[in-house]
Amino acid sequence: MTSAAVETERPTVELRIGSERLTSGSGGVYQHIDPTTGRPDADVPLAGPDEVDRAVQVAHAAYLEWRRTKPADRRRMLMRLADLIEDHAADFGRLAAMDNGTPVGTTSAMTPTAAEWTRYYAGWADKISSEVTASLRADGEFSYTLAQPWGVIGAIITWNGPLISLAMKVPAALAAGNTVVIKPSELTPFTAGNFLDLAAQAGIPDGVINAVTGGPEAGQALVEHPLVKKISFTGGPVTARKILRSCADLIKPAVMELGGKSGNIVFADADLDNACGVGTMFSVGALSGQGCALPTRMIVERSVYDEVIERVRAITGFLKVGNPFEDDTVSGPVVNKQALERITGMIDRAKNSGARLITGGERIGGDLADGFFLQPTVFADVDPSSELAQNEVFGPVLSIIPFDTDDQAIEIANSTPYGLSGYIFTTNLRRAHRVAEELETGEVLINGAANLGVTRPFGGIGISGMGKEGGRQGLEEFLRIKTVSMV
Ligand code: NAD
């Protein structure tokens, strides 16, 4: 394959501990595979418990200064970082294409969102206030709260959106006066280095943000470190359970941003151009289906069911799957061989269990045969209780399910153990709000409202997790309340 993916040089991955940059770690070496070509393209140094300990010690020392840094100075530095992120959108695009095969066009579109998350939390840095809970005038007692940083935050992120995951955690933590040790996924080692370089350029002192790329061993060491006062985790429920078990022993708080199996209810009165465009693009197109909050179950009113299936099939046919370095590519490969095999396994079982394959269902051959490329895949007549409808695929696979009444649609949407996002398409305002109230999810997006608006708290319920990122609540996750009282 004559792709730019092969020609583009990979940056050296370093562990970043304060001002130190290490090209080797006690956790060994991970051989990164380019998902576009299936070929090894970088040796990634992995942090072990030693480097994690050093990073946490450095972050703790930095915290003692950073928490006393004037809030307005923190705001200025984070504002500069936001501008720098925006200015470097093209770099982040290339890095994400190398990391996990995300098309450059997708990252270019998402980088302003990452900059906006940074800018939003920069704005909070000098607006954190406390409240007087009892005044002397009332009953002789004067009491007030202090919203204070926790200290060192352990930020463990996954591989599907390395830049946006950083932007959803780090600026809020820093605005509140914490410092962070990030553990990027070993699968996506390239983006974090650029983020840290820009943070340094923005004037954020060494040690305030540290990055120890590594695997489970490094993640566990971070969770268990006594100087790490809170964990902010993005990943899957299996890892979340392990982390929460450790946190239980240590009585350590944690925010858990986990997966989803979000229902997208399409009523017959919906604008079907909009419903089918959004519902297809964001299930089998964008990120090759590798997004936590994507609308992966399309629950369609029976009177428009056949029409919707035909529209989805047609839109799927226009999605360009291919080299992520090409500007017009919509979908790149999935992240690695294991993911490819897991997804094709689920597709094969769905084919054999009665779901009707509408389009796709195979690995892509030809020029793309060496990479981990899958056809955008759509199934109709999916049993709401089947494996495909109940489990996160994390790949380009959409399930379409019919319904007859509003209550039935709600019941199907709520029938998984997940509860991250809910989607509704209808032109009936009253119905939209009634159904939104009934959905057991952390958010509801109506008629194509976009994901990841920074002013909105984002985060799921059930096995989609706990805690919030975004909005004031996202800031409050990084603050602890102390009460002061005197008589
Ligand atoms: P994962 O849970 O396997 O890994 C996530 C991170 O945890 C990685 O950095 C990994 O190295 C680390 N890790 C692994 N074992 C660990 C341990 N024992 N202790 C500490 N850290 C450990 O992630 P995955 O399942 O490959 O990621 C995909 C999942 O992430 C999907 O479920 C997806 O929906 C979810 N996700 C959620 C959001 C959100 O904001 N809600 C965003 C993106 C992805």
Describe what this molecule looks like in 3D.
It holds the Pfam family Aldedh. InterPro entries: Ald_DH/histidinol_DH, Ald_DH_C, Ald_DH_N, Aldehyde_DH_dom. Residues 28-484 form the Aldehyde dehydrogenase domain. This is Aldehyde dehydrogenase. This protein has 487 residues and is an alpha/beta fold. It has helices at 4-7, 49-66, 71-87, 89-100, 104-124, 136-139, 162-175, 191-201, 216-224, 237-250, 272-285, 305-318, 337-351, 387-390, 406-413, 429-438, 471-476; strands at residues 15-17, 20-22, 29-34, 39-45, 132-134, 142-149, 152-156, 179-183, 209-211, 228-234, 254-257, 263-266, 297-301, 356-359, 377-380, 397-403, 421-425, 443-446, 465-466, 479-486. 54% of the residues are buried. Helix content is 40%, strand content 20%. It has 17 helices and 20 strands. The longest helix has 21 residues, at 104-124. The protein has a 7-stranded mixed sheet with strand order 14-15-16-13-12-17-18, with helices on both faces. Bound molecules: nicotinamide-adenine-dinucleotide.
Small molecules held by this entry: nicotinamide-adenine-dinucleotide
Q: Report the structural category.
A: alpha/beta
- Proportion of helical residues: 40-55%
Count of beta strands: 20
User: What's the overall geometry?
Assistant: globular
**Estimated radius of gyration:** 23 Å
Largest sheet: 7 strands, mixed
Could you give the distance between the termini? 76 Å
Oligomer: single chain
List segments where confidence is low: pLDDT < 50 over at least 5 consecutive residues. 1-6
Strand proportion, as a percent range, falls in 15-25%
- Largest sheet strand order: 14-15-16-13-12-17-18
Task: Provide mean pLDDT, rounded.
Answer: 96
Instruction: Please give the count of helices.
Output: 17
Protein name: Aldehyde dehydrogenase
Keywords: Oxidoreductase
GO molecular function: oxidoreductase activity, acting on the aldehyde or oxo group of donors, NAD or NADP as acceptor
InterPro entries: Ald_DH/histidinol_DH, Ald_DH_C, Ald_DH_N, Aldehyde_DH_dom
